[in-house]
């Protein structure tokens, strides 16, 4: 049976549920639905034992630092997203997008040597199990528009503004929810 360490933290973009396995973050979900997180992890790993911890894989401290303004803090979080070889290639490319920068889906497809697979890149981006840390929020439409985001466009816009990336609707809309921690 696989042991998964979990934690729940409050953030400026709402509650986050984290899960780590063997020292690496394996999931980061928005919201407060631990059953969904557990279902996803059991589908991926089979039967699991869930163990709530204060800072699995050091991710809690690094995420708090990131939300506090140390934008590079999330780069130090070990991540193991699983996935197919193609998804892993896309997710690895996402981690190489510098903070404060955005790329289009077509540019991301070129970066993974699949310029004709823009839709497949978009699908892989949308299936990213470790939001924020694997920064799928840094991918935007070719026209500069904020396109779909599993956590909602308000969160995507907040994250881009927090990272000082240009957003089509400007950078004035930061408050979503204040953290209570």
Describe this structure in words.
With 181 residues, this protein is of the alpha/beta class. It has 2 domains: 2-76, Double Stranded RNA Binding Domain; 85-162, Orthogonal Bundle (Arc Repressor Mutant, subunit A). 32% of the residues lie in helices and 17% in strands. The protein contains 6 helices and 6 strands, in the order E-E-E-H-E-H-H-E-H-H-E-H. A 4-stranded mixed beta sheet has the order 3-2-1-4. Strands 5-6 form a two-stranded parallel ribbon. Helix 4 (105-111) crosses helix 5 (118-126).
Summarize this, please?
The protein is an alpha/beta fold and 181 residues long.
Layout: helices, strands, pairs:
Elements: E1 2-9, E2 16-21, E3 24-30, H1 34-45, E4 48-52, H2 59-67, H3 85-95, E5 103-104, H4 105-111, H5 118-126, E6 139-140, H6 153-162
Parallel strand pairs: 1-4, 5-6
Antiparallel strand pairs: 1-2, 2-3
Helix pairs in contact: 4-5
H/E series = EEEHEHHEHHEH
Largest sheet: 4 strands, mixed
Give the beta-strand count: 6
- Under the CATH scheme, the architecture of the largest domain is Orthogonal Bundle
Number of helices: 6
Radius of gyration: 16 Å
Strand content: 15-25%
List keywords for this structure.
32% helix; Arc Repressor Mutant, subunit A; disordered C terminus; Double Stranded RNA Binding Domain; 6 strands; four-stranded mixed β-sheet; globular; two-stranded parallel ribbon; 17% strand; 2 domains; alpha/beta; 181 residues
């Amino acid at each position: 049976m696989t042991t998964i360490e979990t934690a729940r933290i409050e953030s400026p973009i709402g509650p986050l549920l984290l899960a780590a396995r063997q020292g690496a973050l394996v999931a980061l979900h928005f919201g407060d639905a631990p059953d969904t997180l557990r279902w996803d992890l059991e589908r991926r790993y089979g039967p699991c034992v869930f163990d709530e911890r204060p800072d699995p894989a050091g991710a809690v401290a690094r995420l708090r630092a990131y939300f506090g303004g140390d934008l590079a803090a999330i780069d130090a979080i070990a991540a193991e997203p699983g996935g197919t070889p193609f998804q892993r290639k896309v997710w690895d490319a996402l981690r190489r997008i510098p903070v404060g920068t955005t790329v289009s889906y077509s540019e991301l497809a070129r970066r993974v040597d699949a310029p004709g697979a823009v839709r497949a890149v978009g699908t892989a981006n949308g299936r990213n199990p470790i939001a924020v840390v694997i920064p799928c929020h840094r991918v935007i439409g070719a026209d500069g528009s904020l396109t779909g985001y599993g956590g909602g466009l308000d969160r995507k816009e907040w994250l881009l503004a927090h990272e000082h990336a240009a957003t089509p609707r400007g950078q004035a809309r930061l408050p979503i929810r204040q953290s209570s921690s």
